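User: For a benchmark we're assembling, each entry needs the component sequences followed by a predicted structure for the full assembly. Here are entry 17's components. Please fill in the structure.
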Amino acid sequence: MQLRTDVSSLDGWTVVSVYGELDVASAPELREQLIELVSQGSHLLVLDLEGLDFLDSTGLGAIISALKRARTNGGDLRLVCTQSRIRRLFEITALDKAFPLYDSPDAAIRG
Amino acid sequence: MAVVELEIPARPAYLSLVRLVVDAAVGSLAPGLNGTRLDDLKLAVTEACSNAIEAHHSAWSDAPVMVRCELDDNTVTVEVVDRGGGFDPNGLKTLPAATDPLRLRHESGLGIPLMRTLTDELQFSPGLDGTTVRLTVYGARAVAG
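Assistant: Structure for entry 17:
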């Protein structure tokens, strides 16, 4: 399987840990999963990208989609990412201005 | 110069195979290109192939997408040839700045700006029966020299 996710809870936040490759083959699956979580009432989301091996613009689109839905419902989506090659993609696209990148799920929920 | 060619069905499931082949070809034949530059190339090629696959779907084309790598010690050029309808890269909309809240309305449109940033040379050759995208990345010594 190209992409795997684990979902857990931390102090009222839903933490989605993503493993594998996030590209046009797998982004629709993640997008649907995040939409489903928000529609079920999980409006405070942490997306942990530490297990991600690859991310492209389609994956970024899925993350943007989830952020919009969370914020529309009065919530938020925060990202955990310390890998330089993944962080670089957010920096190149300047999306790190829209998505602060945190070092751990604990840091993300503290803001 | 060495040449490695790959033809893939125009389906997203084959993108990881393209990355594996580019990774292996560069590792064996272009040792000057490594680390961040190899990551840049794999991401840019993925973006080009994703666009090619989308173009094939839009054109109802069953033809394969061709990926052709030209490699020497320090320079890699990858051509992605599709048989979609062709497109005008200059006709793309400009996205709002990342600090603009309107930016988050746009979930797509990042691929071509990314390709421009990640490559040292990028050329689009639209034709009547498809588009050829030519991406070139230099290794560290080539940049310095």
